Amino acid sequence: MMTCDYFGNTSLRVKNLLYNFESQLLLFEELFHNADEAELWANDSNLQLQYLELLEQHNLLESKNKTTHLGTKDARVKSAPLEDYNLIKRKDKIITTQGYELLSLIKNQSYKIDNEFLQIDLISLFFLKVTLNFSKSPFLLQKYLEVFRAFGGSLSLEIFMLLPLINNFENTADFIRQIKNKTIFKSVLQQNANYLQLDNFLNDLQNNSLNTSYFKTAKGEKTALNIIKSLQEVFLPFRESKNTEILEKLLHSKEYADFKKLYLPYLTKHTKKADKIKDIEQFCEGSLEKFGEKFFNFIFEARILANLNDYLDLNRRYLNLTGIFEFDKDKVSLNMIFTLILKHTKYNEILQTIAKSQISSKLLCEYYEDFKESFEKLGISKLQDLKTYKQNLNKKKLTHLLQTRFTKEHIIEILRLFSDRNNDSKIFEKVTTEATIPTIFEYIIAMAWCYIDDNNIERILEAGLSLDSKLLPKSHAVGGNADFVYIYDNHHLMIEVTLTEKTNQRRAEMESVSRHLGNLLLSLDSKIQAQSYGIFIAPYLDKNVLNDFRSRQNCYFENDKTHIKGMQILPLSTDDLIKILESCLSYNALMPKFKQALSSNETWGSKWYQTHIQAMINSLNSFIIFID
């Protein structure tokens, strides 16, 4: 019987996978800590209902169905991957050693710390470790990596999609051989119980006595009936008459909707009707026996491919958590360092070290000397040079992103969407589904500041965001300060961003922004301190937040050692930021205008924003006209 082994769970398809993983672990820590000894993790139990409520409270449930049975099924299904990764034991009501290790990494914001050898952040390294220890299918990642090793560290998307079939073969070498010989489907099909009915099917086809038994699935015979109907009413009549109107009926009639949806995409990839018909005509050629064998094989290959397509997305998303894979449109590759590891004689030893060791920035550093010759060919002469090499690669990736997906025009378009939270789905589509909207907002602001600061790509890398291998943002359950600190020759600039509105903005930002800026100013020498300031960016600016920020210019802020009198905070809406981007003025040209607005004598915050800041922003339009 054919099996498919992959990472993840077909019932758990969520946005922000990493955030979901981390958040659930934090919830289980709370659940298990508060659970009575008598409470059990069992179907429809009170403990599962409590967990369902926690999922709902933290917006981790897409389904709003609150019936007991379906609800606790959600609680089980959505938490199952945590057990597969050996983070929890639900029936024992415990967080495992690996689970506590991840909790520690989350709470210490270890996504900001890179492993010095692999040059991936420690949260990614942790997921590489637990994926190597995947309990649902032991050694699955090790087997996948053997395939990457056989193909030089890079797989076409078609081969990557085949990886879930790997355990249908005696060993990984046999699987690789059959991929290279292009016999993999034949081998897998021969393991299918229904496939053994080929001779019966061909015999019944000759006698025109077809039945559904060959094509039945575990879900029943509905699909099988549709296949037989399509065969008897379309394919066989066309073979007899060669009348293409019969094929057009297949393409347009609702009678064959299931066949058209489930199978036709694997018979023809074309979009034009004439090209589709040509492919179907070619498929129908040959003797009845040859056609019958072709049709029979096609049905089962299409089913395998449909399953593999389903698992492709899961493998891509879960393996992306490890930080070592790079996903392009038509291929999947291991990053440079891990490709070198694959080729090395100590490859298996290094994998075992990762799988068994505590996560740290120094893990694997002792292997640097073993790779010294390979690294020197890349211009890397010492361990510390790996960081510079990685940063240079990141700059190249960011340059490509800015030239393609995130041009200034695209950034402006995305910024406009943040004014209405009904646009969240459009934002996910344009950026990524692996980060929350607030994290994406921070990322887009960092991109915008790159353009404002003379296309300085460093500003994106200095923003302290967690980025994946494509340099797209990732969200974590415990975030850091939502502020960027940029260092210039004579001052520091803190930028803080938020999507909060009205009362929430007053509660969340009035104290935190001034505290973050105050602590920054206290850390600077007096000369730099006097020129440093903060910028606050939000789609909506609450009047009393504006009043509070303006009042800070006369407030004291202190710690145990020193104090400052007054701090400058410049509030900007996303509309203001858009006008700044449209003006094409650089930060050097803008800073005197910012300073002039900050030096105003107006103390009424909301009035100050309207009469000075907005006037300054609107004057930039005049500058555009003048330039034109």
Explain this structure to me?
The chain is of the alpha+beta class. The chain has helices spanning 17-34, 46-57, 68-84, 97-107, 122-132, 140-150, 157-162, 172-181, 184-189, 198-206, 222-241, 244-252, 257-262, 273-283, 288-320, 336-343, 347-356, 372-376, 385-403, 408-417, 424-430, 437-452, 458-461, 502-522, 526-531, 543-551, 574-583, 587-598, 605-627, and strands spanning 88-89, 94-95, 154-156, 325-327, 331-334, 483-487, 492-497, 533-538, 556-558, 563-565, 569-573. The strands form four sheets. The chain has a four-stranded mixed sheet with strand order 6-7-8-11, sandwiched between helices. It starts with 16 loop residues before the first helix and ends with a helix.
Key terms:
single chain; 628 residues; alpha+beta; four-stranded mixed sheet; 29 helices; 56% helix
Concise structural overview:
Helices cover 56% and strands 7% of the residues. It is an alpha+beta fold and 628 residues long. α2 (46-57) crosses α3 (68-84), α20 (408-417) runs antiparallel to α22 and α24 (502-522) packs parallel to α26.
What level of helicity do the residues show?
55-70%
Radius of gyration: 30 Å
Strand order in space, largest sheet: 6-7-8-11
Number of helices: 29
What does the average pLDDT come to? 91
DSSP strand count: 11
Classification by helices and strands: alpha+beta
Approximate shape: globular
Largest sheet: 4 strands, mixed
Terminus-to-terminus distance: 70 Å
Strand content: 5-15%
- Unreliable parts: 64-69
